[in-house]
Amino acid sequence: MGHGCWRERYFSGLLDGTLRTMVRVFKAKDSDAIQRAGYEARYFADVVFREPVDSCGMILVTLEPGSKSSPHGHEFLEEVFMALTEIRVQVDSETIELAKGDVLVVGPGEMHSFEVIGDTPARLLAMKFPNIKDDKIVPDNGK
To answer: Is 42 part of a structural domain of the chain?
Structure first.
C-alpha cells in the first residue's frame, strides 16, 4: 500500500536560530477505509523518529471538562499522541484541534499543552519514544 491514504501536516519554526521541522499531524478522516476479514483498517500515519529508539512509555491521559494542562516540553524524547476524543492542543504558537483517532507527533523542545473541547472529559494516549522518565522541560514564567 502506498502513502496516498495519509496526509502529514508540518509546521516550521526556529529553535536556537535554526530552522526545523516541528509538530506532525495525521488526520484519521483523511485516510481510506479498507475492508478486511471481520474489520476495517485505515492506514494514516507513517511516523519516522529522529533517533533510533529502544523503548516506549505509554500513558493514558484524561482531562476533566473545563481543564487545560500546563505547557511543557521534553529535552530528548519525541511524543506521539493519539486522540481518543476531540481535544485542542497548543504546540508552541500553533493551536491544533484533533478529532478522535488523529495522531500528533511532537519533537524535542516543542512546548505543548492540552485543553478540553466541550463538556465531557477528553482522553488521549501519550507514547514517549524513548521512555525517558525525567525529561520534562517547563517554560519560564509559565509561558
So the answer is: no
Place of cell 529502544: 54
For residue 101, give the CATH number of its domain. 2.60.120.10
Average pLDDT, the chain: 84
Q: Is residue 38 part of a domain?
A: no
How many folded domains does the chain comprise?
1
How do residues 32-77 score in pLDDT, each as one tens digit? 999 999 999 988 888 888 889 999 999 999 999 999 999 999 999 9
The answer on pLDDT for 100 being more than 90 is: yes
- Each as own residue / partner, the long-range contacts of residues 34-43 (CB below 8 Å, 24 or more positions apart, any chain) are 34/1, 42/5, 42/101, 43/1, 43/5, 43/6
Give the integer Cα–Cα distance in Å for 143 and 38.
Answer: 48
